[in-house]
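Might you be able to consider the sequence and fold that I enclose below?
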Amino acid sequence: MAWLPRFAAKKKKETAPAAASGERPATSAVAVETASAAETAYRDGTAAAGLPVRGEPAANELILSVNHVERSFPVGGQQLHVLKGIDMELRRGQLVMLRGRSGSGKTTLMNMIGGLDQPNKGEIYFMGHPFHQWNDDKRTEVRRKQIGFIFQAYALMPLLSAWENVELSMRMAGIPRSMWKPRVEHCLELVGLGKRMHHRPFELSGGEQQRVAIAKSIAHRPTLLLADEPTAELDSQMGAQIMSVFREIIETEQVTICMTTHDPTILEVADHVYQMVDGKFVTT
């Protein structure tokens, strides 16, 4: 994997005054301390609501398990079986890829993992909680706080800057305002956009827009990231850069990433690849 470019984990902050550079002022120690206290209160409230809370990372911690999951849909008076007894695990700090042709069941499985749909049979446990038994409201709350989504088409607000797009995701997740500034700055620095924070999507390349989407997806500190064909709209060089960003995020944020792909050139970056054919995993 030496061919993959790497972003530096840390970058020096600009020292020019905000009025002169047009950049937002550096985050003060007081702001960081306030954000830390707000984050503690935010997580305490999440726990009180009975939702899974991300604690201190544990090596090889089981994040999600899928046990004998089946999903079918009524089509023309018959049942179309899309998932046929799926078993899989996602563990802390893994990059897992789902590979398969269109119609193989990848998207349906991702919907199950993300709580957007429920199986007809089988069980899905997220952080030890029975995801498959929860109602839509409770699953929605988990998605807001514990799961991040990255879409093939970026899903950015076109009139908002990169900074504002990431900030908006924190607002929607219910993150306290005092946490926004240091976290937005950190996320955009992490994906290599420290000097492009205030550009709008139309001023950014496709690769840069995807990086904003990634920063947006990790801003609320999720445990799990789900990415739908994140390199499909990019050339091979940009795709390699995005995979490098994923690896940097896993190392820095201790997050688990599960993604779908058709691209055989990036498979070697994964910790595990599940090959899907007609709703089942096959061994290649």
User: Anything to note?
Assistant: The mean pLDDT is 83. The domain at 93-118+136-282 is CATH 3.40.50.300 (Rossmann fold). The beta strands are 62-75, 78-91, 95-99, 121-126, 129-130, 147-150, 224-228, 256-261, 272-277, 280-282. The first strand starts at residue 62 and ends at 75.
